[in-house]
Design brief:
Elements: H1 26-36, H2 39-49, H3 51-59, H4 66-75, H5 84-91
Helix pairs in contact: 1-2, 1-4, 2-3
């Protein structure tokens, strides 16, 4: 995986986008794109890593925003309750209140 996907840097405001390691940090990158990326970024990242890798990463993610979780649920047609981050949030309901 030598290529870098053509995605916006929008989701990576706290990092130097040009220094992201797309091979080693794929879990972080996939989650950030689903949480804060543009629609085109999401499509590109699924194409870049493959549907199965993106699905497995998201289903096992410790944390996703509500929006990222909803989007992953719709795209992969799976109930939110099947995601690890959803189950984890149910055990920690006080963190859900703002």
């Amino acid at each position: 995986m030598n290529k870098i996907p053509n995605i916006s840097s929008r989701a990576f405001w706290e990092h130097d986008f040009n220094k992201l390691n797309f091979k080693d940090n794929y879990e972080y990158i996939i989650c950030k794109i689903f949480d804060y990326g543009k629609w085109n970024d999401i499509i590109t990242i699924i194409s870049f890593y493959g549907k199965n890798k993106v699905f497995e990463t998201l289903i096992n993610a410790e944390n996703l925003t509500q929006e990222g979780l909803q989007l992953a649920s719709v795209i992969f047609r799976i109930n939110k309750s099947k995601f690890k981050c959803y189950t984890k949030k149910q055990y920690l309901p006080s963190f859900m209140k703002h």
